[in-house]
Amino acid sequence: MTAAVRGLSLRPVLVVFLLATCFLSLAFGFNLAEPGENERFGAFELESDDLVTYVVRKNEPSPGGFLGFQGEMYLSQFGLQGRVFRAGARVLGRRVLVYGPGGAVLLLSMTLALLLARLYEPLGASGTLVATCLLGASKWLAYFASSVYWVSFSFLLPFVVVWLLYDHRWDARGFRVILLVNTALLFARALCGYEFLPTIAIASAVPILVLDLAHRGFSRLTAARIGMIGGGSVVALAAALTVHLAAATVATGSFQAAKAAVSERALTRSSISDTLPAEPAALTESLKFRRVMDLVRPHCGITCRRAVIVGMFLGHPAVRIPVAGVPVPIGAFLLLGAWLFWLHARRGGLAAAMQPTGLRSALALSLPLALVAALVWPVMALNHVLDHLHLDAIVFYIPFLPLVYLSLGAEVKARVSRHAG
């Protein structure tokens, strides 16, 4: 446990963790910001979650691959979450079908509550309340929360764990510990699925930038540590692919067949090309967008088409104000983040980041790296985005939007303290 964590006052942190966990569990579990909205995605999510629950529901042995789906091998991913689900069924029986979605909601809520509790002292009650309410009203977090296929807590767990454990005073030996922990978490996420992995990997480096800026200023050591996190993510992906190929080879009896299945799904269908036909499971929203892209493709290069996709995402609601039902688009929070960055960058120029800035400025000055994490997926996986336009806006929550919420909370706390003083 780092000195930063040891220095926290346990009682208020524990209270914040428990309250935030309860509030977020209710908000995500019942989608309080937008009741009934998840039903629009029900058919797609049932198909995705069937990959995890099929064996338990049908009481049939797995034919191999992920867990087996409708009697066929599904070799796209190793399916760690499915194997955990099956192990849970041995203990809980069919009750795991009920407890699984609730457990997924609870794990996501606890992951975010850990971050909120960790930052309670610098954000204060007002800042923490702002960030918590915005997280609870986040459309895409609520949508993903109960899925046993997406296990969305694993999207943010590396980011949160690094934030909890990292200490800017660490020497090389101390940093190796967090590097190994983070690589292990990325490896586990890759065994669940390769979706958004580049985004998740970059997100896990964001706390290093925030905490170094806050306490020691940006340095070559900061850049080196961020680079090592990137190197660890490559190792994690390579290890996960090796395990996946080995499992698929056993299931099919042929390395070539396993390699072809993994390559087709993990690489070709998520490539930078956008010429493959849409999957049958893609929703109308994605199919309509495909038709738009068919129209612009002859007149627009691939970089332009990526920009069109990002523009579409910016129009998606980031949060929806409860009761009133007023959506606030992702683009509005992008503008808010740009304003927060400019507000702190102009005070001493970016050169001032070489000196300790304090957490409030560090949160704002780290927003560009968090935005890069969000944008890397639409750039690298154009096909996946086109087939999953109704899903892939989640990348803006890993961790750009939560970081904007925290930065806004820090501004609120500063202004409340100024008026109170």
What does this structure look like?
This protein has 421 residues and is mainly alpha-helical. 69% of the residues lie in helices and 2% in strands. The chain is built from 20 helices and two strands. It has helices at residues 3-6, 10-29, 42-58, 80-92, 96-118, 120-136, 139-145, 153-165, 172-192, 197-203, 206-215, 220-252, 255-267, 284-296, 302-314, 330-348, 359-365, 367-380, 382-387, 400-420, and strands at residues 317-321, 326-329. A two-stranded antiparallel ribbon has the order 1-2. Strand 1 (317-321) and strand 2 form a beta hairpin. Helix 2 packs parallel to helix 6 (120-136). It starts with a helix and ends with a helix. 46% of the residues are buried.
Q: What would the keywords be for this entry?
A:
421 residues, mainly alpha, two-stranded antiparallel sheet, 2% strand, disordered N terminus
